[in-house]
Amino acid sequence: MRPLDPPARRALLGLAVLAAIGAVQVLFLIGVEVDRTLRHRAAIAELRVEVATLHAEAEDLRAIAERADDDAFREQLARRQGFVGPDESRVIVVHRDVP
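^ that's the sequence the OP posted. Answer follows.
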């Protein structure tokens, strides 16, 4: 096999440099895609938790809506929110630590 002339060597060196740059670019793009995939999986997991929480909240609201005609139930809901009846007084108890 005879040695390559200088223009052929330069052409091969140029191709080798381009191949090396291409390999680095491919590795970088693979890294970017792996990172993107991991971030998307984490976001999907968070959204699944949020959807489950919203479904549970919707079930609670349906249960409340089903008992909307129950006066005692509505009164208890109002009392939990701090409402008092027209003939009642609100009493606030403040606990003080005595030294």
